[in-house]
Write a structure and sequence with these properties.
CATH superfamily: Ribonuclease H-like superfamily/Ribonuclease H
Number of helices: 8
Order of helices and strands: HEEHEHHEEHHHH
Distance between the termini: 59 Å
CATH topology: Nucleotidyltransferase, domain 5
Strand order of the largest sheet: 3-2-1-4-5
Structural class: alpha/beta
Number of strands: 5
Helix content: 25-40%
Shape: globular
CATH architecture: 2-Layer Sandwich
Length: about 220
């Protein structure tokens, strides 16, 4: 079964004069804690018919994302790279530049692939990405390669946050994945920020010692 997203990629391949379209997307720009994670993904034309169930990760249930993630990453012929930018790098660079850093790291696997073009989810080209690229607004809902990258990035980050849950008990990172839920904010007020919190993000910054809300 062919995904309807294949047709967009076919047209982009012609437009970009590229035989190797690499989808790049990220997960985790909005949370108050944890890394931003990017994925660069290439689905060979010979296997695209196996991924008719791939869609924008935000439109899938957690169980469906896990299922497709296993399908994409378990000897299916799909090539992918994953890149992280840490909470500390986010604070040092800002979230946009840290997202670009994670995307550049994810794309390292494909830098020597000839005649390639990266389709980037969003309106902005990735700064200093050493390969041809094309920003695609709402790309995760249009492109099969970007949608697959969105799933791998999201599930990889969710798994990482589950590990952080064991390292920093009390914050429920495995539940809210670092987003600013009421439970997360209550834990922040009671425990204070941990090393995985993004200190330049307003809700965390307000709770840092010296800002009047924590001793």
């Amino acid at each position: 079964m062919f995904s309807p997203l294949c047709e967009f990629d076919r047209r982009q391949a012609i437009k970009q004069e590229s035989n190797f379209l690499i989808g790049i997307d990220e997960a985790g720009r909005g949370p108050l804690a944890g890394p931003v994670v990017a994925c660069a993904c290439f689905i060979p034309p010979s296997v695209v018919q196996h991924f008719g169930n791939v869609n924008d990760s935000k439109k899938l249930t957690e169980a469906k994302r896990e299922e497709i993630f296993k399908q994409l990453t378990s000897g299916s012929g799909v090539l992918y790279g994953v890149g992280f930018a840490t909470a500390q790098e986010i604070d040092e660079l800002n979230i946009l530049q840290a997202t670009f850093l994670a995307m550049r790291r994810a794309a390292q696997k494909f830098l020597k692939m000839p005649d390639s073009c990266a389709l980037i989810d969003g309106p902005y080209p990735v700064k200093d990405l050493p390969m041809k690229q094309a920003p695609i607004i709402d790309g995760d809902a249009k492109s099969l390669a970007i949608a697959a990258a969105s799933i791998i990035a999201k599930v990889t980050r969710d798994h990482y946050m589950a590990v952080l849950d064991t390292l920093y008990p009390g914050y429920d990172f495995g539940g809210h994945k670092g987003y600013g839920t009421a439970k997360h904010m209550q834990a922040l007020r009671e425990l204070g920020p941990c090393p995985e919190h993004r200190r330049t993000f307003g809700p965390v910054r307000k709770l840092l010692p010296g800002n009047g809300l924590l001793p």
